[in-house]
Protein: ATP-binding protein
Organism: Thermocoleostomius sinensis A174
Amino acid sequence: MNHKGILIFFCGKMGSGKSTLSRKMSEELNAILLSEDEWLSTIYPEEIQNFDDYIKYSRRLKPLLKIHVRNILKAGLSVVMDFPANTINQRVWFKEIFLFENIPHKLIYLDVDDKTCLEGIRKRRQTNPERAQFDTEDVFQHVTSFFQPPSPDEGFFIEVVHRDAS
């Protein structure tokens, strides 16, 4: 059997709905859901205090997960990754997972305006008070300054989902 699972991952600003959509899609597809927030908070529960800490510990996690995810996909199971693909460098990491094995993939780009993202962050702060330190407008502005929408020349199969405040 040479059937491979599909890798689904997301690009979208903070608060755009990546985590919500990833949970929904993993249930609909009966796929394995991997959440960066869950992995990081479990493995490094006290270490992540700011954005630089997040970058440091996320980088530690990715080499192991790249191999793990590739093996799951090659076994024929689909994986939905709630990990950001919000910069060209982050997307290169996803490409390393699937490219050499010709594993099917889908990059879902949540094209959401800032006002809607900030409202999503406000709601998330209420439902997940433990995230209040990071779910702020200042953090949103800082993280958004690095955001790079995907472009067709990057070589991904991209599905665009539009949402705005209207």
About this structure: The chain has one domain: 7-163.
